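Sharing a chain and its predicted structure for anyone who wants a worked example. Both blocks are below, sequence first, tokens second.
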Amino acid sequence: MNHRPFEDWLLADERISSEHTRELQSHLRVCASCAALAEVNLALRSAKTVSPKPGFTARWHLKLAERLQVQRKRQLVGGLILVMGTLGLLAWFTAPWLSTALRSPVEFIASWIGYLVFVVTTVQAFSQAGSVLLRVLPGFITPYMWMVTASTASGICLLWIVSIWKFSRIPQGV
């Protein structure tokens, strides 16, 4: 059953035509969900509004300023911890190279050249293996399996993004 026009008519502030009113009344006799919505809407419209106590906005702005200050402090402390941790890890990982460089600059340069040659040859080997796989793989895997693989990878990426979004949100107090 399509509830959309009836829900729109119930929640609209403007008056509806007599034909729509008849349709709505006949639908409300049949549909418990829309009848409950109409009852709640009527109760909300007839509820007495209460104005806030004097000084509400000043107190609210004060609490907001306090929360923002606490959030800034947290961000500052978190940033300092991140920077200090990064510098510590950087020092930990570069200490062997720095000690080699300070002992013997020739040995340090030779090890860096060896490392760069290793990286270049590894990238070349992976690119050649990848090009061979790209030429051979389409003959072994059906288009349906490509679609299933791509869909699975997309689903995993979406799940990862949603989980990061969900766990990185800061809950807002009411």
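Comments welcome. Residues 41 and 174 are 23 Å apart (CA to CA).
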